[in-house]
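Input (THO complex subunit 5):
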Amino acid sequence: MTAADIITDPDLRAVLDAASLAQQQCDALLALLAEHPLPATGKNPADGQLLLPPDVAESVSTAQKKLHAHLAAVRNRNRKALLSVRSTKHSTADARHEVDTLHLALQNLYYEQRHLESEIKACQEYEHPYQKLPLIPEDQFVEQFPEVVESCRESAREATAARREKAKEEGGEDTGMEEGDEDVAYEQEVFEDALMKARIEHEHKERLALEEKRQGLLKRKQGLIAENNKRKEDLAKLDESLEKFIEAAKPIEQTFQKEY
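Output:
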């Protein structure tokens, strides 16, 4: 596997392509010089190049110019690749920061979800006082008040229809059987809620009637107590009068008891 197979970034591939062209041009220049070796005239290669035939010297000069051009292209591509790497690093850092932010937001959502689930569970397990009310049995209520039950059923149908219309306005088309089953469950839930409210209202009315009756009996009791107290007072006065009468009648009794 070559470097070209591993590297897929366009900028780096451009650097490799430019380097490959520079290498090919360098190989061509070396091959040309190998075919026409420079005479050993000193340390400066330019002195030996002057001794080459004019056409060979021109070919070598052209090859060198092409090589310099390819090397300049390699440097240019390399500079662009470095700038691209820096930009990629910045983009990666920004993306990492965004991912961290989203991850934190997701964790917050999970925490809120668990909190809401615990609150829902607590509400579902909460023992409301209405569950312990001494209501009449549901069957008996349905038998005694069929018109109230039918009214609760009609209210449940209307609430379900309103909910369905609202869902269509917000979500578009009907979703089919699944939504139908959900509507049936929702209608039953609303009906049970309305029926429970009706039973509680009936119990409330019954208790108000009993309370009114109790208040009436209490007033009657207070009246009887007041009348009884008045009669006791009258009897006490009568006893006092009788005692006075008896005291006043003692001389008469003594007179009749005298022996003559």
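The chain has a mean pLDDT of 83.
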